């Protein structure tokens, strides 16, 4: 029986399996993601990452969600990939990554955390669904962000009940990530997320960026913003319209191993 080696990492509990390109050459990556990410019959993760060669950047990030779908960008995943490559001497402290959402600039810090330039966000207007008022924001991938006045409602929300309905609503032909947030103060937000293609996760980097952008856009918060997630905290900076959004946070190792295929 064949096997492939992997490294498991997480960013604020948002976990990933990293495979080297030669390990999965010729493999059905969508099928691999579904099998490897299954938490009972596989290793368990929110997605898989593959660092591939690039003519446009220092490295290309190939990313598949746990359901086998391709995602344009993954903020926590790109931080994990940054530490993985940096620890192996394959990138400098400042480098670029080719993604489905364009080139991203990374600043890797000595402690393994990193600051990611997510690019210039796009605020695409409001939409009311299922009793919630969502603001549509793109940080390289689509997000629908809603703010709730009571933090207890955010904590007690059944993401599995409302999340899928919004993710797959006809208003979002390509699906959407869904964020439920409460503004604690000018520089701190509590947020929980239902991720497109992965379901309820402990954190989202691009989702944190989108939530901070939505709050600043609505003048509910000011940069920098600490986004407190189920699995940890990231910091988001945004100077306003036309400017890039920056997301900073940790990346940690979980384990290494071999997956039988």
**Count of separate DSSP helical elements:** 5
CATH classification, class level of the largest domain:
Alpha Beta
Number of domains: 2
- Could you give the count of β-strands? 17
Mean pLDDT: 97
The biggest beta sheet is recorded as: 17 strands, mixed
Output the helix-strand order. Answer: EEHEEHEEEEEEHHEEEHEEEE
Overall helicity: 10-25%
Subunit structure: Homodimer.
Catalytic activity: (2S,6S)-2,6-diaminopimelate = meso-2,6-diaminopimelate
InterPro entries: DAP_epimerase_AS (IPR018510), DAP_epimerase_DapF (IPR001653)
Pathway: Amino-acid biosynthesis; L-lysine biosynthesis via DAP pathway; DL-2,6-diaminopimelate from LL-2,6-diaminopimelate: step 1/1
Describe this structure in words.
A hairpin with a 2-residue loop joins strand 11 (177-185) and strand 12 (188-195). The chain has helices at 29-37, 75-87, 151-156, 159-167, 205-217, and strands at residues 3-11, 14-18, 47-52, 59-65, 94-99, 102-108, 114-117, 122-129, 132-138, 142-147, 177-185, 188-195, 199-201, 225-229, 232-238, 245-249, 252-260. It has 2 domains: 3-118 and 250-260, Diaminopimelate Epimerase, Chain A, domain 1 (Roll), CATH 3.10.310; 122-243, Diaminopimelate Epimerase, Chain A, domain 1. The chain has 5 helices and 17 strands. It has a 17-stranded mixed sheet that branches. With 261 residues, it is of the alpha+beta class. The longest helix has 13 residues, at 75-87. The mean pLDDT is 97. The protein is 19% helix and 43% strand. It is globular. Its EC number is 5.1.1.7. Belongs to the diaminopimelate epimerase family. It is an enzyme of class 5 (isomerase). Homodimer. Catalyzes the stereoinversion of LL-2,6-diaminopimelate (L,L-DAP) to meso-diaminopimelate (meso-DAP), a precursor of L-lysine and an essential component of the bacterial peptidoglycan.
């Amino acid at each position: 029986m064949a096997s492939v080696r992997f490294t498991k990492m997480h960013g604020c509990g948002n976990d990933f399996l990293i495979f080297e390109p030669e390990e999965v050459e010729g493999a059905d990556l969508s099928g691999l993601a579904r099998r490897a990410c299954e938490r009972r019959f596989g290793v368990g993760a929110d997605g898989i990452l593959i660092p591939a060669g690039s003519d446009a950047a220092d490295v290309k990030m190939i990313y598949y969600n746990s359901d086998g779908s391709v995602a344009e960008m993954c903020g926590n995943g790109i931080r994990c990939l940054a530490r993985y490559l940096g620890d192996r001497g394959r990138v400098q402290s400042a480098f670029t990554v080719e993604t489905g959402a364009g080139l991203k600039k990374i600043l890797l810090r000595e402690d393994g955390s990193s600051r990611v330039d997510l690019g210039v966000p796009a605020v695409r207007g409001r939409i009311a669904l299922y009793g919630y008022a969502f603001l549509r924001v793109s940080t390289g991938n689509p997000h629908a962000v809603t703010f709730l006045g009571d933090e207890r409602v955010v904590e007690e929300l059944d993401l599995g009940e409302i999340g899928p309905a919004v993710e797959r609503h006809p208003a979002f032909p390509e699906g959407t990530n869904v964020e439920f947030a409460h503004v604690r103060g000018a520089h701190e937000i509590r947020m929980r997320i239902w991720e497109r293609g992965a379901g309820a996760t402990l954190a989202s980097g691009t989702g944190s960026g989108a939530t901070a952008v939505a709050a600043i856009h609505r003048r509910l918060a000011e940069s920098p913003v600490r986004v407190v997630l189920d699995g940890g905290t990231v910091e988001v900076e945004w100077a306003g319209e036309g400017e890039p959004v920056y997301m900073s946070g940790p990346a940690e190792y979980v384990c290494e191993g071999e997956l039988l295929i």
